[in-house]
Amino acid sequence: ERESFLQIIRLHGGNNEKGEYWIVKTKNGRLYRFGFNRDSETISNINSYVWRWSLDLITDTYGNSIFIAL
Questions:
Q1: Is 40 exposed, middle or buried (0-12, 13-18, 19+ CB in 10 A)?
Q2: SS3 of 67, please?
Q3: Cα angle 50, 64, 62; round to 5
Q4: pLDDT digits (tens, 9 = 90+) for 11-66
Q5: By C-alpha distance, which of 3, 8, 67, 1 is closest to 39?
Q6: Full 3-state SS string of 19-60
Q7: How far apart are CA 26 and CA 6, in angstroms?
């Protein structure tokens, strides 16, 4: 088994229907944010739950950011 050293954090207060989003922090400090905006969260049409959070922001340790719009 190989360790990825990823820190995965579930947060509340997102700008989406359910208010949840995720931050994944890599070993080198890069941050990946998933599901923060309404267009990066996919809700099931059968039940009321999120079945996919898409990547919407990447931030490096220098504060540079890439915003991803779907």
A1: buried
A2: strand
A3: 115
A4: 999 999 999 999 999 999 999 999 999 999 999 988 888 999 999 999 999 999 99
A5: 67
A6: CEEEEEECCCCCEEEECCEHHHEEECCCCCCEEEECEEEEEC
A7: 5
